[in-house]
Design a protein that fits this description.
single chain; about 400 residues; alpha/beta; about 15% strand; elongated; binds zinc ion
């Protein structure tokens, strides 16, 4: 028997596959599955919007996982229209019932001025770096791209902000904002693991940026070396998907709460004191807010976090890491975030407890009768006092 040439093989495949023109396919975009069987480097240069990408060589192994419905109409395309004929033949052999091949492939499609775009895709380096995420079907490429596209603002580059920032950067959250107006002091290093001895005296935000960028150059670290106040908070938080609150005082927490409600940005709240920590998630109008949980700041003499309090060194590492994992869950819509639940950790007992936190129907900030939210300034004694907006 004579050995078949590649042309013979192509002709053989052609006899089994219907080929269609772009004119026939374009009006059906959205109704048919477009299957791009080119190599990854070709696909990354540009593809038909919404196309499923499985390289020709991987079809037999991956297609049934990617396209489980064998009765759905599929248009296979490659660069010029030959590989797609072989690809379509493979699908037909696998039992797909309605498969055609696009004549002229992507190149002719593009030359004719039909819709295409550069698909969002992980680079080979990113595929390697985030490999353990890609192995989780709940995260996979789509989740990782979402994280890379996410913007998280960290309030404070201290005890809680340090572990949260490190883990969010490592996980590939693409934009991390860090706000802190302090400089690194040697007494911070007992727990603030973003910083190191050679950074003592440096602005904390600059030290944070160095550490996070060294860990993961994918991350864009945006620094705010300012005091968060009523005058700047709305501008600063604007555009962020989520806030990780690691602040240590009541005035800022109320300010953050009210501003995040106005902007409808979820807040992952964490706090620590001595040997204990707490984490909860405030999802604006979908769960309780900080004022629902703590309607009034305690009097200054009973508000230990307003003064310097002792804290065991590792404790913020645990609480800040829980904040980071809650942040990722909220960003990816995974599992049950701590919305309406307060997780309390006791390091001495080595115990975790959760408490229900309910929305307060009479909450002055998020309740149905709440008046328009006023972003107010608070004094150093934790006493709230409204500030007249500039110009009044
Ligand atoms: Zn509330």
């Amino acid at each position: 028997m004579a050995v078949a040439s590649s042309r013979d093989l192509l002709n053989q495949a052609r006899s089994a596959v219907r080929e269609v023109d772009a004119d026939e396919v374009e009006p059906r975009l959205g109704d048919v599955v477009l299957l791009d069987v080119r190599e990854a480097d070709e696909y990354e240069q540009g593809a038909i919007p919404g196309a499923v990408h499985v390289p020709r060589g991987m079809l037999e192994f991956q297609i049934e996982g990617r396209l489980p419905d064998k009765s759905a109409p599929v248009v296979v395309y490659c660069a010029a229209g030959a590989r797609s004929v072989f690809g379509a033949k493979t699908l037909i052999d696998l039992g797909y019932q309605d498969v055609v091949s696009l004549t002229g492939g992507f190149n002719r499609w593009k030359d004719q001025g039909r819709p295409w775009r550069v698909p969002q895709a992980l680079t080979p380096d990113q595929r390697n770096r985030y490999h353990r995420h890609l192995l989780l079907p709940e995260v996979a490429d789509g989740g990782q791209l979402k994280l890379l596209d996410s913007k998280v603002l960290l309030l404070g580059a201290g005890g809680l902000g340090s572990p949260a920032a490190l883990y969010l950067a490592a996980a590939g959250v693409g934009t991390i904002g860090v706000i802190d107006m302090d400089v690194v002091d040697a007494s911070n290093l007992q727990r603030q693991i973003l910083h190191s001895m050679d950074r003592v005296g440096e602005r904390k935000v600059d030290s944070a940026k160095k550490t996070l960028t060294a860990l993961n150059p994918d991350v864009d670290v945006v620094t705010y070396d300012v005091r968060l106040g009523a005058d700047n908070i709305l501008d600063i938080i604007d555009g962020y998907d989520l806030i990780v609150d690691g602040t240590d005082n009541f005035p800022t927490r109320y300010l953050v709460n009210d501003a995040s409600l106005l902007k409808r940005i979820p807040v992952v709240h964490g706090s620590i004191f001595r040997f204990e920590g707490q984490v909860t998630v405030f999802d604006p109008y979908n769960g309780p807010c900080y004022r629902c949980m703590i309607p009034e700041p305690p009097p200054a003499e009973l508000a230990p976090s307003c003064a310097e309090a002792g804290v065991l060194g590792v404790l913020p590492g645990i609480v800040g890491s829980i904040q980071a994992i809650e942040a990722i869950k909220v960003l990816l819509g995974l599992g049950d975030p701590l919305i309406g639940r307060l997780l309390a950790y006791d390091a001495l007992e080595q115990s975790f407890r959760t408490f229900k936190v309910r929305r307060d129907p009479s909450c002055p900030a998020c309740g149905p009768d709440a008046e328009g939210i006023v972003i107010a300034e608070y004094d150093e004694y934790c006493l709230p006092h409204a500030v007249r907006p500039a110009g009044e």
